[in-house]
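Re: Re: token formats

Sure, here are both.
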Amino acid sequence: VAASPVSRRATPTGSRGRGRDSREGVTQRRATAKATASTGRLMTKIQRHAIDKCYRLRHGSSIDAELEDELSKAELDRARDLMAGDQLAADAAAIRAAIEGAGTDEEEIYRALRNKTAEQRSQLEAIYLSRYKISLHDDLKSDLSGLERERAEALRAGDVGKADAIGLEHA
């Protein structure tokens, strides 16, 4: 999977971390970090380091410290997994975040389970159990019911056709 571009330059032209160009560079990198977290696109270690450094210069704290302060455990896991380029772990965290708290984001659960190979589904289940100390099956069973649970279980089993048929029936 290709990395998303942040910038072709290590630092903004004509700046050494100060001035208007630097602020624009930080703003661009901050927006890129947010886009990466929301789209799941991978960034290189060099890009991540540049974003971290610019963020610390601009805000006086690390991105990780800010994320720890603002996000739930599962949301934090997902953000870190996306920044590390681990999509399967990020999907496991997205499912947990969709289940935690008030209400359930069924569409996020379906998205995270969709179009996985048998090996990916197995790895996702192992990550989930290791991190959250409950099986994905048991967590889905305790949080979903009826057609929503059937659809999630179909995707968990890799049966996208059945899940889509259930989705049409539920609509």
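Second one below.
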Amino acid sequence: ALNGTDYTAVTGSLTFAANASTATVTLTPVNDVDYEGPETATLTISTNADYLLGSPYAATLTIADNDKPTVSIACSLTSTPEGGANPVLTFSRTGATGVGPQTVYYSVSGTAAMGADYSLLGGTFTIPQGQSSASLTVSIVQDTVTEVPETLTVSLSNNAAYTVASAPANA
């Protein structure tokens, strides 16, 4: 955490009141709109000829970030035949987009078989830094087997680095 940026500026000295055995330094976090993850601030007492340095002589505070991005998912198609158009999954995030790439975790379910009916999906997708969305094309496998209609559902997974939108969280 940066002094004066992530918390209100703290000066370099502290004066104890007469006959006081304690003094307080207040670190007030700045509520910004940037997702930075948890950050730490360490206050360290420096040596000085006017006092003896006790132990501990440092204290660390972790500032929890309240600006997590929110992620959602959408699909370009609700139905497609084998040999038809390939569905495109669009992963989107709102909020912090400039901090870095955003890895989004997802699970796959349904009656269609991964690898046999559609391309392999890895369970993670990364939205590049500075972008609010990115897309993943799912290739539908054309085979000669006669089948009943099958389903494929991609659901966003919870993660500490983001909040899953209430809708759409499935595609």
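The chain has no helices and nine strands. The beta strands are 39-44, 58-63, 70-75, 88-94, 102-109, 124-127, 133-137, 153-156, 163-164.
- S.
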